[in-house]
Amino acid sequence: MGGYLALLFLLIIIQGILDATNLLPLRLSVIPFVVLHLILLVGFFIVLFRTISPSVYREAQKHGELAAAEVLAIKETGWRSPGSQRTSLTIRYSLNGRPLRPSQYEYELQLRVMPAHTVPYEATVTTFLPTAEVPPKGATIPVKIHPQRPDILVLEERNEK
Questions:
Q1: Where do the structural domains in the chain lie, given as residue ranges?
Q2: 3-state DSSP helix/strand/coil percent for the chain, to nearest 5?
Q3: For a Cys staple, 106 with which of 8, 79, 116, 121, CB 3.0–4.6 Å?
Q4: Tens of pLDDT, residues 59-111
Q5: 37 close to 129: Cβ distance less than 8 angstroms
Q6: CA-to-CA distance for 51 and 130, rounded, in angstroms?
Q7: Cα–Cα distance between 24 and 29 in angstroms, integer?
C-alpha cells in the first residue's frame, strides 16, 4: 500500500509539473493515472482468482490421483454461488421446466475415500454444485486426491459438451 501511495504522489507531482509548463494537455497528463489503476485492477483480479481457487486445489484437479468416494453424509451450507443465475434482467430461461443455468449451492460432503493403493479414509469436501448434480447419500462419486497432501480432495470435473 505504501508503494501505491508513493507512486500516486509522484504521479500527482508529475501531472502538476506538466500542467504548469503546458508540455502536455490535461487530457494526456491523466494517462499515467489510468494506466496505474488498470494495472491495479488486473492485479486485484489475479489475487481474487488465487483466493477463490487456491493453488493446492488447482494442483489436485490437474495432477491428482483419481479415486472413488462413497457419500456418507451431505448437507447444504446455505451459500449460493455468486452470479449463478443473476443478471441485470430478471428473465429466467428454461427448457422443459428446467433452468438453462442451474442454481448452484454450497454443499458439505462427508466422504469415505477409497484410493487404489492405500487404506480407505474419511474426508470432508465443501463445494458448489448445481441442484440437479447433488449426489445422494450412499452414492459413489469420482474424486481427485492431491499427490502430496491426501487431505486435499476435489470432485472430478464432468466434461459435458
A1: 2-52, 65-155
A2: 35, 30, 35
A3: 79
A4: 888 888 999 999 999 998 877 765 444 433 344 455 555 555 557 888 999 99
A5: no
A6: 22
A7: 6
